Amino acid sequence: MPVPVVSSPVRRALAVLAALLALSFATPSGAAAQAMPGSFAPLVRQVLPAVVNIAVTTVVNNGDDIANLLPPVLRGTPFEQEFLRHFGTTQQVRAVGSGYVVDPSGVIVTNNHVIRNATRIVVSFSDGRTLVARVIGADPLTDVAVLKVDAGGSLPSVEFGNSDAVEVGDWVLAAGDPFGLGGTVTAGIVSAKGREIGDGPFDRFLQIDAPINPGNSGGPLFDLQGRVIGMNTAIYSPGGGSVGIGFAIPSNTVSEVVSELRGGGHIRRGWLGVAIESQSDPDTRDTGVLVTGVAPGGPASRAGIRPGDVVLAVNGSTVDGAAALIRAVAALPPGTRVRLAVNRNGERMMVPVRIGERPANAED
């Protein structure tokens, strides 16, 4: 049988078709593309035993609110004391959040705002056990807290993943206890990275569309391998419920804070002792940080930093805003010597500064 002859135009068309088919089935270069799983059930079975409910009891004294109702002329008088005796009350308030076990010995991670001011913390597990927890340490600036329970044996636990490797569009699984209903999982994707929502100078949230609601705070965000790549912390919600915009603290931030809290119970951060605001110079096109105030006796004051100075860089690394300067300094161990590039009245200079330790109540 003779071999069919294919004309040149047809041959070219077939070659193009073959190339298109090859592209259709090719694997993207770089990181392997994440395929949507047929079911999240295997992943849920793997990770949910390490996800916990956290019930917190706090004591609230509304005496201060009641006292504010008094006319100023009556404050500090015997009438004020009698008024508070009759109308001032102390109440126990219970709140619910989520958390996850990161060490089989009973180390649990959650949000600081979940356990803040708690007088009693009770952790409930998926197998029905409830255990009283104690606080190992907490960091309000990153909203991370570490708890410990004594379970009398090994607990199911999960591991941290690398949040820097997470890409926008990756599938994620959020777990927690919304509205106190019990262990709940939702799925979605990473919508954005590096979100700043005005929650503090260390904002660098993962934005997700996996539904999270009140009670999910402190719960883990998993990748498809069951690694924790974030901690669910906040939602954007005009009406109080999920609208598909949630925020999680990246796991690299959480794991670093957890490690330091487990080691010493608190975080030591660098501090300059200045009041600052972001600034952009339209003439020089320089972006920097304007010093609006200097703490007396603080590191910046001792180094000669003045109000009106504009900080441009720390050890050669440009700072393009107030939050960037705070993060750069906070990352340095107290006692570190650095060189600040400063613009003072149009003149650039280098100012050596020995970084101090950030006080617990520092706002800058």
Q: Which terms would index this structure?
A:
364 residues, 20% helix, alpha+beta, 2 domains, Thrombin, subunit H, Pdz3 Domain, disordered N terminus
Structural summary, described in words:
The protein has helices spanning 8-25, 41-47, 63-67, 78-87, 112-115, 251-264, 299-303, 322-330; strands spanning 51-61, 90-103, 107-110, 118-124, 130-132, 134-139, 144-148, 171-176, 184-195, 205-208, 220-222, 228-235, 246-250, 270-271, 274-280, 287-294, 310-314, 317-318, 337-344, 347-354, 356-357. The protein is α+β, with helices and mostly antiparallel strands and 364 residues long. It has two domains: 40-267, Thrombin, subunit H (Beta Barrel), CATH 2.40.10; 270-357, Pdz3 Domain (Roll), CATH 2.30.42. It has a seven-stranded antiparallel β-sheet. The termini are far apart. Mean pLDDT is 83; it is low at 1-32.
